[in-house]
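JOB MANIFEST
job_type = single_chain_structure
chain_count = 1
residues = 179
[input]
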Amino acid sequence: MPRDVALHLAATESAGPDVSRDRFRDAMSRLGAPVVLVTTNGVAGRHGLTVSAITSVSDEPPTVLVCLNRANRSHDAFLRNGVVGISILGQGHDTLAATFASSRLSSDEKFGHGAWRADGSGAPLLEDAPVTLDCTIEARHAAGSHDVLFCQVHSIGLHARPRHGLAWFSRRFHLLPAD
């Protein structure tokens, strides 16, 4: 093995079996992730929060998964309403992302920012988001402190003028090029 490769491997190896919560969170902060608002509306009221744990699952039928912490005050409302609005954020949305990440603000205070619309499910969708997905929750799987929600996509909104994507990496917002 070349010396520079061996030195690199030695520098990146773990010093031991340290898999504490803090070390895991530090490791995951080095994984770039989208910045997304997930929202719901229905019998349990209107709620929303910022997440980065979201990914596509299938294109037939169109399905995404969203991870929600069961301790989050909006968690049960998502399950009771059974619908999820997904607004993938872009350039200029960092303040809105921070607003929806706040546990100190009420739902009304959060939704007081931005312009909102609803498609078939009634879940709020951000008007100027680069991408919106209107979904229903089709399945739920418990994993540790979170529920993984499998959401079938019923409508897609693509903004006419794509803007830079908003990503979360190393505990900060970053812009991804639009082209």
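[summary]
Confidence is low (pLDDT under 50) at residues 5-11.
The two ends are 39 Å apart (CA to CA).
exit_status = 0
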